[in-house]
Amino acid sequence: MKILLVEDDQATGEFLTSILTTNRYTVDVALDGQSGLELAILWNYDLILLDIELPNLDGISVCRELRSRGDATPTLILTAKGLNDDVVTGLDAGADDYMIKPCDPTQLLARIRALLRRGTGLQSPTLTWGSLWLDPLSAQVTYQQQPISLGPKEYSLLELFLRNPQRVFNRSAILDNLWEADDFPTESAVTNLIKDLRRKLKTAGMAEDLIETIYGLGYRLKPPPNESVEHRMPFRGSPAESKNRNIEEGLVAIRQLEEQFRSSLRQRMAVLETTLRSLQCGELTAVQQEGAREEAHRLVGGLGMYGYAQGSEIARKLEHLLEADTLLAETTITQFSQLLTDLQNEVARKSVMLSTASVESISDAPLPLILVVDDDVAFTREFQQEATAKGLQTQIVAVSGLEQLPQVMPTGILLKWSGVSPSSEEIKALKILRQQFRSVPIITLAEQDTLVNRVEASRLGSDGFLTKPIVPGQILEWVDRVGHYAIAQQTPQPLKGEVLAVDDDPVMLGVFTNLLQPLGLQVTGLLDPTQFWDILTQTNPDLLLLDLEMPTFNGIDLCRVVRQDLEYSDLPILIVTAHTDRVSVQHVFEAGADDLIHKPIAESELVTRVINRIERARLQQQLNRLQQKQTEVLQYQSRVDGLTQIANRRHFDEILGREWQHHRQDQMTLSLILCDVDYFKLYNDRYGHVAGDACLKQIAQAIQSCINPSTDLAARYGGEEFGVILPNTDLNGALRV
């Protein structure tokens, strides 16, 4: 499963990435809102984790833009902004859930699983192919009850095929599902990965090859062989061993991230210390105050994530204090100073404790908890024994004892309804449970299977309905399906677009229409190739289907015409023909066709080739637009000073040279202003680099406001030096500037 994390604080982003990758998620990270929006538009993600306070574009705007585009990707806002209005704004913007930093990683993972379940439905927790078993609960693969050791990419590839047994994956689709956006593997990486997976399965004793290679299309899962009965029980090792084995992979990375975060705290605190000195001198600028507030905001999330819970609360108070307009008041300065001292002491104290603590405490987190609300002692004892054997905790609560609800978030809830119909107390219990545990799956176990009971449970928010007689193992299987261990399969979105099919056989046009329209494609059929260009320019299709042999103009003629036109030269073209000889195939591809489909047409082949070509063309268009935008950004950055956002020295020299030649030839007046900031080094030393940068920004804005940007040019020439080019301006005009 692929997650997009949009987080501007590097320490928090690295910690969350480590937690997610340890739990076998593929993670792409964006450090600002604009980059996050572009990634979300360009790639398909299963879930988006989104901060609110982001550079360039805030998280609320990102969420609104995605929803306005019809993007329904589950989105969880993860931010330090915890006021009621902030939560309401986030959810109204289209977010599916809202969590406040700092948050418990186990609760974050539980909410991620809940969001993934919500959009994709239920499925069996264990994936099988003959005697091969893949158990997401323990991330373990077995063949004939013997474990197989697979690398992370090999495991993900096997899971991808087992979850999509009917789908053909080309190499590009496998790259999109298994690699992060920052990685740039070639398609040969997929070939090598499939080869490695086949080799390991064969070494484990598998005689059959479960992956089928379809020439020209990609790979898919073969139909499973007939397996014997004795091999239908999966190997189940110790749950604790499986759990520790999965988490050990991330312990070293987490240790390194904690060390990096602790070493960065001194620099982060220095920003607040500089702000305090400016406050005490009465020289705090608005820009400096905003920079300090942003740093305090980042500390709220970072400190909480890395175990400084009390420090996170102090940082939150500092953030609120820096938001106030009365910051210069004497009492407020005293309060700021005291909070900063408390934060420094807390960070120093906690750093000593955390540096000697073992990160392995993460792996000692409590096992998933099942809450059982039932008065039947015999049944609850049997259920508890079965759950313990599967590595689950249970807490038994009587229907009348809901005040004893657990303090931790349960993985799932089992509620017993007795009698022909539930009592008012049992109905009330379901209401209470649904209200208190909104994102936790609840299964109702009833003694009588009636439509009235099923409707009542559904209306009250039950996620599953089971009836007696049933054994605890079957109930736990349902918990697996709707609870902690469900791993959702992405629901494919309908493919929207238009196909122009040209064939002199009306039967073939009907075949194209019947096969492609259910996919969401609009098919325009054309019997007369002489009308081809008029219909092409009217419809602007996403793909062409051309018959090879037609009267007047054949498919190769039409293909060459399209390739000669600049507007349609990249349009995907599929040639349909009954000829399979080498010469015909060579002519087709020499004319510029992208693919060849042989008659008689295989339905799955036509559908797969059309989908692959359209998706590939659209992806290429998106990449071209992104590349063009990146080129424009690079060109802009090459001309503009990164701090002051006015022209840099390189662009200044280029414009000056050009204007000098032009004015010299035409005998016109050109004025040049060069200036620098007095005592800037002393200012920097006293108030710090943050205040110095803010000062340079204000000076640049002041200079820019005094000139005509359409004709004049202001630039940062170096350090604290600035220059202004004034075309067609004499000395008096320059003095007025």
Name the features:
737 residues, alpha/beta, Arc Repressor Mutant, subunit A, Four Helix Bundle (Hemerythrin (Met), subunit A), 6 domains, 25 helices, 24 strands, phosphorelay response regulator activity, phosphoprotein
Topology:
Elements: E1 2-6, H1 10-22, E2 26-30, H2 33-42, E3 47-50, H3 59-68, E4 75-79, H4 84-92, E5 97-100, H5 105-120, E6 127-129, E7 132-135, E8 140-143, E9 146-148, H6 152-163, H7 171-178, H8 187-203, E10 211-214, E11 218-221, H9 239-280, H10 286-305, H11 309-323, H12 330-356, E12 369-373, H13 377-389, E13 393-397, E14 412-417, H14 424-436, E15 442-446, H15 451-459, E16 464-467, H16 472-482, E17 497-502, H17 506-516, E18 521-526, H18 532-539, E19 543-547, H19 555-564, E20 573-577, H20 582-590, E21 595-598, H21 603-639, H22 649-666, E22 670-676, H23 680-687, H24 689-705, E23 713-718, E24 721-727, H25 731-736
Parallel strand pairs: 1-2, 1-3, 3-4, 4-5, 12-13, 12-14, 14-15, 15-16, 17-18, 17-19, 19-20, 20-21
Antiparallel strand pairs: 6-7, 7-8, 8-9, 10-11, 22-24, 23-24
Helix pairs in contact: 1-9, 1-10, 2-3, 6-8, 9-10, 9-12, 10-11, 11-12, 23-24
Offer a quick outline of the entry:
This protein has 737 residues and is α/β, with parallel strands linked by helices.
Written description of the protein model:
The chain folds into six domains: 2-120, 3-Layer(aba) Sandwich (Rossmann fold); 127-233, Winged helix-like DNA-binding domain superfamily/Winged helix DNA-binding domain (Arc Repressor Mutant, subunit A, Orthogonal Bundle), CATH 1.10.10; 242-361, Four Helix Bundle (Hemerythrin (Met), subunit A); 369-482, Response regulator (Rossmann fold); 497-618, Rossmann fold (3-Layer(aba) Sandwich); 640-736, Reverse transcriptase/Diguanylate cyclase domain (Alpha-Beta Plaits), CATH 3.30.70. The strands form six sheets. Strands 2-1-3-4-5 form a five-stranded parallel beta sheet, sandwiched between helices. A five-stranded parallel beta sheet has the order 13-12-14-15-16, with helices on both faces. It has a five-stranded parallel beta sheet with strand order 18-17-19-20-21, sandwiched between helices. Helix content is 50%, strand content 16%. Helix 1 runs antiparallel to helix 9 (239-280) and helix 23 (680-687) packs across helix 24. The radius of gyration is 32 Å and the shape is flat. It has 737 residues and is of the alpha/beta class. Pfam families: GGDEF, Hpt, Response_reg, Trans_reg_C.
